[in-house]
């Protein structure tokens, strides 16, 4: 059974940082590209970043380049998202996903507020 379990969310002040983790199990992690997506209150899903199977290639929308960094540790079957200089508009539930699939985690809440 595929499982994706996010962690690391929380309440942070504007300008702060968080590192999200996604523990993967039930599939061969390093066979797949992975992604982070988010959903802000009352809004649709927004793609945040993607990474290829071995971490050599990473992808971001322009709005997140320079603040967010996706990475993975295939030895630990774990995906990460380092988020710096957080803004209130980054408040959302963040999900990890096997890219192009219907497999998602349960999400972790990130709230950016003073």
Radius of gyration: 13 Å
Order of helical and strand elements? EEEEEEEEEE
Mean pLDDT: 96
Strand content: over 45%
| Structural class assignment | mainly beta
Characterize the main sheet. 6 strands, mixed
Query: Span from first to last CA?
Result: 40 Å
- DSSP, total strands: 10
Tally the helices. Answer: 0
Low-confidence stretches: none
Instruction: Describe the strand arrangement of the main beta sheet, using strand numbers.
Output: 2-10-9-4-5-6
User: What form results from the Cα inertia axes?
Assistant: globular
Query: How much helix, percentage-wise, in residues?
Result: under 10%
Describe the structure.
It contains no helices and ten strands. The N and C termini lie far apart (40 Å). The chain has strands at 3-7, 10-12, 18-25, 34-39, 45-51, 58-59, 68-73, 78-83, 92-98, 108-112. The protein has 114 residues and is mainly beta. The chain has a six-stranded mixed β-sheet with strand order 2-10-9-4-5-6, with no helix packed on it. Strands 1-3-8-7 form a four-stranded antiparallel β-sheet, with no helix packed on it.
